[in-house]
Amino acid sequence: MSEYLVAKVSDIGEGKMKEVVLGDSGNKVLLSKINGQINATSHKCTHYGAPLVKGVLSSDGRIVCPWHGACFNASTGDIEDAPALYNLFKFKVITKEENIYVEAEEQALKSGKRAPICKKAISATNTDTVLIVGGGASGNAAAEKLREDGFTGRVLIYSRESYLPIDRPKLSKSLELTAEKVAIRNDSFYNDLGISFHLGITATAVDTKSKIVIFDNGEKVKFDHLIIATGANPRSIPIPGIDLNNVFYLRTVQDNAKIKQAIGTSENEKKNLVIIGSSFIGMEVASVVAKKANVSVIGMEKVPFERILGEKLGAVVKKLHENNGIKFYLNADVNNIESSTVDSNTVGAVVLSDGTKISADLVVVGAGVAPSTDFLKSSPEFPLERDGSLRVNEYFKVEGLDNIYAIGDIASYPYHLTGETLRIEHWSYAKNTGRAVASVIAKNELAPFQKIPFFWSTQYGKGLRYAGYATSFDDVIIHGNLDEFSFAAYYARGEKIIAVATMAKDPIAAHSAELLRLGKFPTTSEIRDGKNPLDVPLSN
């Protein structure tokens, strides 16, 4: 253990952060000061390595990553919000007169990330079983958090996937992936925590009276607590030709590999790729393969992302893609998919309702997703919504059922900021719902879920960040320059700003998420008059 002189006490103000170098080692730590206490933690986000000093620090001691909204406790280094998997290291701070010293081990400084401290011993006296159906982001987060919060009963995960939980957003960001490359954890991690995985198995029914889930291999598994985390399935399109070869969806590692194989590696003979859908999956796939294929995108809206981002920002995304060779067919409906003249079983073209024919060697369907809850339709006690989701309360408990929870993509929950019932399909949100339910079960902590949604997309090196959630909005107020892809967009409903989207304006999105959480966001009139949210302190 070494002690380093890193700064003067006067170098760091209240509510501020400072990145410092430890002597000649070149190692860095992040200093933060809250309520007069100086803390020292790892300096990079444990998710994708963003410099946390460029993020934000709230008065209740939350360090927020500028890239993807991961939150850490400044005092302990512990995760408070997803998507990070590891805590920050917390280092001892010593003040002598006007000097700040940090005591740290070399290994911790180089690693920068610390695994959560979990209860690893399963108690012989705790016979409770938590059964998690679904091995995605929310189910995995729930299992880990159960152990972190001290649950000593059995934790079982039944997943339809053939592999352990993966970092699914990466599937649309690269075609050079394997299950091992995108795995969240390895076998030994789960074994050490006593988390039992059962892979390649699909739930077919739930008997709520007997507390049993029935699976397609004939297993009947009894539970004390059931967490339904089955995620969503890509939506198909009921048109002729949708079942032809080389028509793909993107949900699994296998899907990713099939798309890569169909595109091939020849730069001289680029394949014609048609993407049906102009939202997240479609546009991210387009950006990944823009240099490897001739890409056409078909969308029903005027511009990409119109429903989520509005017409102004959608036009910005369209321009970004057109600058990289993507061709758009918008305000368009697909009539059918034609087979190839060479092989009648393989796609050859996509035909629009106006008769336009787009040559295609392969098609990727990115037409949204639907909750994976078909196995519950035979059980009338489950309150399925019209979209197939499950209505839950603010603790993600399924209405009318004891000890049964629904999380992630399948849950419709009461969003505290607007009072609406929302179903959100984003990675960080899914993980946060899993963590929340685990704390309800393990610690009986009935704290209403009040996280601010935060999601992101990177296309052609441009990072789009979005904080809040706007199902509808009256106006979009722009600060910055859309043509230069550098802006902050504020989504207004009356005098209330309910969401913020940014590009090249960090840390406005992260700061805005905290202002929304604290109820401190400026009014629509103030934003319209030019007020910068960064000028509003993050105090309770």
TrEMBL record:
The keyword Iron-sulfur applies. Residues 4-102 form the Rieske domain. It holds the Pfam family Reductase_C. PROSITE patterns: RIESKE. Its cofactor is FAD. The keyword Oxidoreductase applies. It comes from the Eukaryota. InterPro entries: FAD-oxidoreductase/Apoptosis (IPR050446), FAD/NAD-bd_sf (IPR036188), FAD/NAD-binding_dom (IPR023753), FAD/NAD-linked_Rdtase_dimer_sf (IPR016156), Reductase_C (IPR028202), Rieske_2Fe-2S (IPR017941), Rieske_2Fe-2S_sf (IPR036922). Keywords: 2Fe-2S, FAD, Flavoprotein, Iron, Iron-sulfur, Metal-binding, Oxidoreductase. One of its GO terms (cellular component) is cytoplasm. CDD domains: Rieske_AIFL_N. GO terms for molecular function: 2 iron, 2 sulfur cluster binding; metal ion binding; oxidoreductase activity, acting on NAD(P)H. Belongs to the FAD-dependent oxidoreductase family. This is 10653_t:CDS:1.
